[in-house]
Structures are given as structure tokens and as C-alpha cells.
Amino acid sequence: MTNPFAKNRLLARAARNGRLSHDRKRRNRAEELVIRAARTRPLLRRQPSGISFTAFSGKIVHTMRLSPITVVMAILAAQSARPELLEKTKKVAGLTVRYKVVLPSGYDPAKTYPAILAFGGGPQTMNTVDSVLNRNLRAEAEKRGYIVVAPAAPDDQLFFEGGDRIFPDFLKTILADYKIEGGKFHIAGPSNGGIAAFHVAAANPQYFVSITAFPGYMWEPTPAKLDAISKMCVFMYVGENDEYRWHPEMKREADVLRAKGTIARYTVEKGQPHRMETLAGAGAGRLFDGFDEARKGCSK
Questions:
Q1: Is 169 a domain residue?
Q2: Same domain, 49 and 179
Q3: Structure pTM?
Q4: Do 218 and 95 have their domain in common?
Q5: Is residue 49 part of a domain?
Q6: Helix residue ranges per DSSP H, the chain
Q7: How far apart are CA 245 and CA 122, in angstroms?
Q8: Coil, strand, or helix at residue 134?
Q9: Residue 183 belongs to what domain range?
Q10: Which of 63, 75, 83, 125 has its CA 20 to 30 A from that of 249?
Q11: Do 51 and 100 belong together in one domain?
């Protein structure tokens, strides 16, 4: 006589095997659909315990579970690798100074970087700061690993007409905030910014490696002022068609500096007006070629 319990067990086993076979088919079908869908895009899904990223390679599924902390750290690391443009304000020598700072790609506060002190042209307002950064300095600085610090003239006082009172204290605050190569800056600017670059460098020569004016020259030069900058590299650019005709004074000062043994270059940009396009955009690399050269030394 057949044991009814044994029969029930056999029936249960058969039913279970049938279900398992059916479930296996459904599971295989589901995996096939997932793989097919994933061939067009990766899948990122949030789990209660973190984030699971599923990547597909052919018919193989690779799943990686990331904790929330890991994800946050990865996001912060990606953000820190991006170049930054900061806007700051400081009280210096009784004046409120607004300025912008360009930090290069992958900036690391523990590392040392070459730095440029930049001045805008014209009235030297924040608008002209934005102009010199966007046209001439920011993109190349981010790419080549330079910090750029660009202040606006405090209380509308040009940096060669009273605004220079913030130096050298302003430079000391920047040196406290950032690790600057050799504790010295390259100084640069167009038009009034070029004039300001010569003026500030001559008054504070211990803080500067090079002067770049595009265009610009020493306002009210004296032998003492020219001697103060004679150990720096000096790069002067002027448009061939410059409407203000700064050519004679720029050339004369370059000649005097060269006679002192200074690396002083005077370049006339063919067909260019006062506001030169040849040193903007992709052409701005030429300005940085000068900065790079000055980093190697300015003695002949």
C-alpha cells in the first residue's frame, strides 16, 4: 500500500521543481531584458543602504555598491578639481578692496603656484577686472596652473593715483591666503592697468618677478623708478595703430632698461589698435609665455 505521506512529498517535490523551473525561466528572461535595456544607457539606482551603480559589458552585469559617504567624497573631489573664480572683499589700509581670484584646475591649497597680480584698464572698476580676466588671463591661468588676483581700484582711485595705498599690505594678505611661488608675483594689465603695473612694481620691487603691459609704460619715470624694476623681466606690447600713440615712450623706456641689462621686450602688434585682439583669447598664451620665461630667471 502506497504511503499517502510519501505520495504527498513526491507531489510537493514535483510542484516545487516545476515552480523552480518556471522561476528560473522568468529570472533568465528578466536578466535578458535588463541587459538589453542597459545596452542603450547605464543604470544608476538608489538603495536604502547607499547607491548601486550597475554597468554592463556584453552579457556580464557588474554591480558596485557605494556608501553615501563615498559618494559625497567623490562629488567633493570632482568639484575641487574644477577651476574656480572667487569674489572677495578686504579692508586694507583703511580702504575697502574688492577683488577676484582665479584658481587653476586641480587647485590644492597645500601646493605652491605662480601668481599674477592683474589690473583692469580704464577706470579700473570691477567691470574692467572682469574684462581683463575673461579676455586675457583666466582661461590660460586655469590651464597652466597660475593663480590670478585682480583688484578693483578702491574708492575709484586709480592704482597710480592714490589707489596704490593698499600696497604692500594687500600683497601680504594674498601671500597669507595662498602659497605663492617665491613669495613674488608677475604683475600685468592693459592700458591704465599697464601703467599701474609699472607704478606698483617700482614702488614695491621686492614682491615682483616680471611686468607685462599691453600697452603701458612707467608714468612719470625717474632713474630711481626704472632702476627699481631693472632686475625684473619686462614685456611691453602696443598696437601698431594705437590711437593714443604710446609708442615713443614705451620704446624709450624699453631701451633704457635694456641698457641696464634688463630683459625688456618692446613688441608692436601689426594692425592692432589700443585694445589689442592679438593678445586676447587664444593669443593670450603669448602673455603666459612671458610669465613662464620670467620664472626661469630674468638675468641675461
A1: yes
A2: no
A3: 0.75
A4: yes
A5: yes
A6: 4-38, 68-80, 126-132, 138-144, 169-177, 192-203, 223-228, 247-259, 285-295
A7: 16
A8: helix
A9: 83-295
A10: 125
A11: no
